[in-house]
Design a protein that fits this description.
4 helices
């Protein structure tokens, strides 16, 4: 189980004489208890004398090496159950075998791991962790378990009606050690509180923190895992610190790695805790029909306000209010027209040649569905014809700008207003007469001169022939002449006595009567207006007005109103002798209902996100806003960032609405760079909440996993890309440096003489380049393991093989060995061979 600590060496010397040392006062043991526990590491011969009359006595034994247990005494019949929990199977005699239960990994019976976790690694020495070898301390420095953990296991194994009597622990039981039940033990605990040390259980790992996240509601807090001591090296934190606790003063993702308690191979324990800012109100949204997981794990689907009480990093309660909104699918209809025979390309890349309705579901900027219906219509090719004549010797200009001097039938390709093909067939013939149509317009009383000089003044159709001097044909001008008569209009109006009336020509009058005005019509002809003015005692004025909701309107008599409707007021001007009746039609414009598209997830690495709102035409403002776009990097990670949209209606009424954006950032922390020797492999690690993808993948055991095994033949930098549930992307890398020709200095002898003369009594590996012997196994000629130890310091002879198996000297001969060596510089090499045991 690793190298022997100073404490274990001291315990080993004391155990040679089976000394009884009361490390803890026994006054806290239950003198009326019925559970007696013995534990050690190296095994030996354990003789238990039941000299006390304890009813229903139960004995628990926990060792790593083979132990020969003999139970006897005057009250041996009081023993109702004996349970062994260790690695190598023991030999237990003196009691009925029916009351003996053995849990030992060496015989394949690992039911004891139901307390510690499932055994899923074939051959892993997990059960041997249930041993005690260092005394009554609360920790397990040097190997095995602490006394409280041993006691707790047996107390949890038996019924609540059973009580703890005492616990005796030592390094071994050599030579045979005799124990009297009446003397109790050297470790007594009234209420053991520490859990069994964590054990690497692949792939679930071990949950140290018990929670996934916590809030930082004070200036700093401490992450402490010291209540789970791990003996093989200190935890290494993501901050670079080592030890069982660290102080944090800002939010972030914190994790650690540490060798598992049983130090099996290169397995690592780890756990991650996200320290979040102490927020009170969080605004977020989900797509309609989707689910949202609250911080306490509750899953909800409806919009609303949810209150969740969390435990802050300092242990205090923190109330988090989640304002959850749902985003309905966006329905959009697009009408498109294409020319017959052409192809329409949809946004997803698909195409069509046919008219019809096509429905697509896209993902909007909010991450929710956007249902777009495309109504495709076809425009056929337009066909037309034109008959025209022109004079011999002249040219004819077609609609497309081309010309010809020859008669014939011509197909002219044109583009219609819709942008489609239009085919015009022009039939040209030569003629000695060219017709020209002319539209003429004159006012009544004027004259019109035809092309041949004839003067006319009456409406009608006139034909005149003109013989151009340079052309061999006659031009016939057919003129349709229209004569516009003078327009006569009559209007009446009234005004108050003593007042003035504004006439249409801009002048004013105070007298009633008939007034005539001359105008020019749109055709340029005379227009005569006759206005009849009369006096009246009441003048009506119609007024139309619009105000914004919440504003007020002042009528002509000074009355202030706020509601829509028709209002009639009478005004008595002081200088006129009549009443003015104002009839005001007042409309009140309600605030416009504004809808802002809110993305469900915003990743900080996205360059920009278009901002959309209904109705369009308004102005966006807020952190990260630039015009009609949102730039996540400018707003910064976190939030919520309040985005405001202001809209001004045609009537000048201003409406506004707000939404919140939260910018998220994925994280990925790959393991540190490592050195290996060519041909060796190394496990890479990445800590991320997203899905990792490694590249290049040629020398990896897997590419979409958290812990790929890398076996590169040359120095390689592996890039890991993580994509989280929101689609946010982040990368990190780790370089594996491959030494193709390492200079490793080590020596393994081929023989040793364990005869007790102090010279060459132990077999081990030596060398200044060796950092640690990770695994040390010796086999006999039949392949059976006679010695096994992990994490052995090189050159430490007491930690090497002394030629024994289970405490007994083996016969001289040749034995095989396998050593897993780790050299300084983090190089690994497996050394194997034969060694001769000599006497």
């Amino acid at each position: 189980m690793g190298y022997i600590s100073n404490m274990l060496r001291l315990t080993f010397l004391l155990s040679l004489f089976c000394l009884f040392t009361a490390i803890h006062a026994q006054v806290i043991c239950d003198p009326s208890g019925n559970i007696m526990i013995y534990s050690n590491y190296e095994g030996g011969n354990l003789n238990i004398d039941v000299d006390a009359d304890i009813p229903d006595l139960k004995i628990g034994i926990s060792t790593y090496e083979f132990t020969n247990v003999t139970i006897s005494g005057a009250f041996v019949d009081n023993v109702t159950e004996v349970v062994f929990a260790g690695f190598n199977a023991p030999s237990i005699s003196g009691v009925d075998p029916a009351i003996v239960t053995e849990y030992a990994a060496a015989i394949g019976d690992v039911a004891i791991t139901s307390i510690l976790g499932d055994l899923v690694i074939a051959g892993a020495p997990i059960v041997n962790c249930m041993v005690g070898a260092e005394g009554c301390g609360e920790t397990a420095d040097g190997g095995g378990n602490s006394s409280p953990q041993i006691v707790q296991f047996f107390l949890s194994y038996w019924d609540d009606d059973d009580a703890f009597y005492a616990h005796y622990t030592d390094y071994d039981a050599f030579p045979p050690c005799d124990f009297l039940i009446s003397e109790g033990g050297n470790c007594c605990f009234s209420d053991p509180i520490t859990d069994p040390n964590p054990i690497y259980v692949e792939p679930a790992g071990y949950d140290f923190f018990g929670i996934d996240s916590a809030l930082l509601c004070t200036t700093d807090t401490t992450l402490d895992i010291s209540f789970y001591p791990v003996v093989w090296g200190l935890p290494v934190w993501s901050t670079g610190a080592t030890g069982y606790s660290i102080d944090v003063d800002e939010p972030g993702v914190y994790y650690f790695t540490v060798g598992d308690y049983c130090h099996y191979g290169s397995n690592l324990l780890t756990d991650t805790l996200i320290i979040e800012p102490c927020s009170t109100v969080l605004d977020t949204s989900i797509c309609a029909g989707a689910t949202f997981t609250l911080p306490d794990g509750t899953v909800v689907t409806d919009a609303g306000t949810y209150e969740v009480v969390l435990t802050a990093a300092d242990g205090s309660d923190s109330l988090v209010v989640i304002e959850l909104t749902t985003i309905a699918p966006i329905a959009v209809t697009v009408d498109e027209n294409i020319c017959e025979g052409s192809t329409y390309v949809f946004p997803d890349g698909s195409t069509t040649l046919d008219a019809g309705s096509y429905i697509f579901t896209f993902t909007a900027a909010s991450g929710c569905d956007s249902i777009v219906t495309y109504n495709i219509s076809l425009t056929d090719t337009a066909f037309g014809s034109l008959d025209a004549t022109f004079c011999p010797g002249s040219s004819y200009t077609f609609p497309d700008g081309s010309t010809t001097t020859d008669a014939g039938v011509y197909d002219i390709n044109l583009t219609s207003v819709a942008g489609c093909d239009s085919l015009l067939t022009v039939t040209l013939t030569l003629s000695d007469t060219t017709e020209v149509l002319v539209a003429g317009l004159i006012c009544s009383g004027e004259t019109y001169t035809l092309e041949d000089g004839t003067i006319v003044s009456e409406p009608g159709v006139y034909e005149a022939l003109v013989f151009p001097p340079d052309e061999p044909c006659v031009t016939r001008f057919i003129t349709t002449l229209e004569v516009v008569d003078t327009v006569f209009a009559f209007e009446t109006a009234s005004f108050c006595p003593g007042a003035a009336f504004d006439l249409p020509d801009g002048t004013t009058t105070t007298d009633p009567g008939v007034y005539t005005f001359n105008y020019t019509s749109a055709a340029g002809c005379d227009s005569l207006l006759t206005l009849t003015l009369t006096l009246t005692d009441t003048v009506e004025v119609a007024v139309s007005a619009v105000i914004c909701e919440g504003d007020s309107y002042t009528l002509e008599d000074g009355t202030v109103v706020t509601a829509a409707g028709e209002y009639e007021v009478l005004v008595f001007p002081p200088d006129v002798a009549c009443i003015t009746r104002y009839i005001t039609a007042l409309a009140v414009e309600a605030p416009v209902e504004i809808t802002i598209d809110t993305p469900l997830t915003i990743c900080v690495e996205v360059p920009s996100i278009p901002l959309n709102a209904d109705p369009p035409g308004g102005v966006f403002s807020g952190p990260g806003v630039s015009g009609a776009t949102f730039i996540p990097a400018n707003a910064g990670v976190g939030g919520p960032h309040v985005i405001t949209y202001s809209y001004t209606s045609p009537a000048g009424c201003i409406s506004s609405a707000t939404t919140t954006f939260t910018v998220t950032e994925n994280y990925a922390a790959a393991s540190a760079d490592v050195n290996i020797i060519i041909g060796e492999s190394v496990v890479l690690n990445v800590f991320t909440e997203g899905t990792p993808v490694w590249s290049p993948g040629e020398s990896l055991s897997c590419t979409e996993c958290f812990n790929p095994v890398a076996t590169p033949s040359s120095t390689t930098t592996y890039i890991v890309t993580s994509i989280d549930e929101g689609g946010c992307v982040v990368t990190d890398n780790v370089t594996v440096f491959v030494n193709t020709d390492p200079d490793l200095d080590y020596f393994i002898p081929n023989s040793f003489t364990p005869n007790g003369d102090g010279v060459n009594d132990f077999f081990t590996a030596y060398g200044t380049s060796i950092e640690i012997i990770e695994q040390f196994i010796v086999y006999d000629r039949w392949g059976a393991i006679v010695f096994e130890r992990d994490m052995v310091e090189p050159g430490t002879f007491l930690a090497g093989w002394d030629g024994r198996k289970n405490g007994e000297l083996l016969q001289p001969g040749v034995y095989a060995y396998t050593l897993q060596l780790r050299f300084f510089g983090n190089f690994l090499r497996t050394a194997s061979g034969n060694v001769t045991l000599m006497r």
